[in-house]
Amino acid sequence: MGLFSTVTVTGHRRRTKTGKVAQVRRHTRTIRHDVVQRPLGRPDREPWTGVIDFASGSNHAGEIRGLHEAGHPIGVAAPEVFPAAERALTGLAGRHHPVFIDSGAYSEVTFNFPNKKGKLKRPDLSIGIHVTSPISEAQWDKRLDLYERLALSLGDQLYVVGPDMVGHQTETLERVGKYRDRVRRLGELGANVMMPVQKGALSMAEFDRQIEETLGHGDFIRAIPMKKDATSVSELVDFLRDRQPDRVHLLGLGGSNRTAERILQAVKDAVPGVIVSMDSTKITAKSARSGGTGHPDSNDPTDKRRPLTVASDEAKIAIWQEAHLGARDLHAQPDGVSEDRPIALDYTDAIGEPSTWLSDDEAVTVSDGANLSAEDAADFHDDPDGFLQGEAPNGMPWYMDPGMEESLDAAWARFVDSQTVVEKKRRSVRSTFMHKDPTT
Predict the structure, then answer these.
(1) What does the DSSP 8-state code read for residue 107?
(2) Domain count of the fold of the chain
(3) Cα 140 from chain centre
(4) 299-314, pLDDT tens digit by residue?
């Protein structure tokens, strides 16, 4: 089921030196997103129309592909996007799949407030928000370079969070001014630019006006920090009623949050017709292991694995079985390896030629597992293929020796696991996030 959004935004407002508006352009554009509309809060609820719920922090190429196949909006963090992930993202060009990319500015600060027991996260710091891992100019340039490369490929499929400093209004305005031209360029490339509305001495509405003044236009999505109750519902509503934005993004609030439905209703009441997007780290939320055997046929009552962990275990076993049986459509694609040079995984062909896949360290592990003598181990390390054809002490070829068979099979399983990380993540994420209608 697709989601189709028609977004009406106020275009660039250009001002003269006297401060008067010299030109106002208002336009309507249609952005098409082919994603599955999901219920919010509980699976038995009706889906909210016109809400894009990104799975932020899905930085691995396999996670990106799995979410795309499941029809789920994708979210990544700029500092964690490496070449394989970037290729997976640019591969979505023209597929009408929305992609959210966060700057990673949240990691720059430490929230040092008393917990329920009255203890501070950092006793050496005063209560408040402290910049403990500042983002350098070079790091901002690198992140904005990534934004621009993705915008060139994805256009209006892309949603980017502009430069800011969490919890700091003055510093955020300085960054907006510093990188204004680069932010404008992203908009020109079609990207949906989000500008965070920080709290501080200025009201949120006045701060938003300052951002608009600094950028020279108001054609951006208002991004409201919601993580850890950073913005209360009443503050959010007051801001929305004052500014009446066309689009708003709720930073750090996911659709499965128990407060999501109430907050979304408040947003819709404050600005009827507003287009809403939101994000949360769904991969992490669905991953945890506590007990359980990891086998899909297990009825272990202590199994408390979360859905993505279960799916990952099942995918790992299925992939190993396919590789063992010589599935012709299964290929290795380890992290960082280009898709156009896959390695075929076929146990029948590979097990007799370990030199093609066995590392030096693994050769040592295999010889130790097979209890080879020092002399035999040296021969195996020098020429594993030839050694397997030689005669074992029991008169059989080494490749038929039970100890060697077991040790070599274990090494093959580890190799397959290491070479199919992308595929395992793709399958497990697709299975976990594929929408299942509870009424069917």
Answers:
(1) G
(2) 2
(3) 19
(4) 566 677 888 888 888 8
